[in-house]
């Protein structure tokens, strides 16, 4: 049993305990509270439903024709992809979510992926664990791709990289939305999800592997500073490190991966091996504001004929 499953079971038991101690009054109160707000919220939900349905329909028009639509929500772990995917999916029945985490955390699909990898291994050749892990990830994405094609619904992929695109003959068949979260936001999300969906400092390594310094660009994704990262780690994630020295060394490694070896302010861009049709910078935006931005983008694209 992995750590994520253990935390999920603990959370469920806690909810059961609350229900038992209150005789169900806790949930009864919230049902009454929701009922009082039902009229106002109903109008808001209806408006949001129409807006999000229009968003997905607009994105679909970028593909042309009437075939199945595929959307990839791509970004580092803890960037907010899953929350955005669920919000979009819950507002329309036309799409289903296929999430890498759901497959990797499922013991059956993970076991199947490992068996498929074992069948490919040569007993007379050495292989490191990184290579074997990459092979397992490829097998998981093959299952995701298969299930997406078998489904009659349009697809929203919830992914932390773009490897799924390699399974498409034409990568443009998939509309790619990159969800960008700053280093500060990622650290806050790691801390916020600590007891529900545990993540660790590796999230920052994922960030460094997809972004790179570019002080020449006129339209940078973000501006970052090594000292600011060190201070943010000291204020929030000390428990991830053995000492201050290891914390500082880790921050320097993160920035060196992006081509930065000083404490100056630097601009960054997405690495060339990644592509996107649109990028959402989450920042301090809530989910509704993110969807509003996507809606505005698709509306503008339609009016300009892009």
Topology:
Elements: H1 3-22, H2 25-36, H3 38-61, E1 70-74, H4 81-90, E2 95-99, H5 100-104, H6 107-120, H7 129-150, E3 154-159, E4 174-180, H8 183-192, H9 202-210, E5 211-213, E6 222-224, H10 226-236, H11 244-257, E7 266-270, E8 278-281, H12 287-304
Parallel strand pairs: 1-3, 1-4, 2-3, 4-8
Antiparallel strand pairs: 5-7, 6-7
Helix pairs in contact: 3-12, 6-7, 8-10, 10-11
Please state the average pLDDT score. Answer: 80
Terminus-to-terminus distance: 48 Å
CATH class: Alpha Beta
Gyration radius, in Å: 22 Å
SSE order in H/E notation?
HHHEHEHHHEEHHEEHHEEH
Largest sheet data = 5 strands, parallel
**Overall 3D shape:** globular
Count the beta strands.
8
- Strands of the biggest beta sheet: in what spatial order? 2-3-1-4-8
Q: Estimate the strand proportion.
A: 5-15%
The CATH topology label is: Rossmann fold
Low-confidence stretches: 1-45
CATH homologous superfamily designation: P-loop containing nucleotide triphosphate hydrolases
CATH architecture, by name, is 3-Layer(aba) Sandwich
Sheet/helix structural class: alpha/beta
